[in-house]
Amino acid sequence: MPIAGELHYFFHEGGDASRPPVVLIHGEGGNHLTWPSDIRRLAGYCVYTLDLPGHGRSEGPGLQSAADYARSVLTFMNSAGMSRAVLVGHGLGGAIAQTLASEHPDRIAGLVLIASGARLPIPSAVMENAANPATFPLALQALQAVMFASQAETKVKGATFERLSAVRQTLLFGDLLACDAFDLSDRLAALRTPVLVVCGTEDRLTPLRLSEELAGSIPGAALQTIDGSGHLVMLEQPRRLAGLLTIFLATVPYRPGA
Question: In Å, how far from its chain's centre is CA 21?
Answer without folding.
Answer: 16
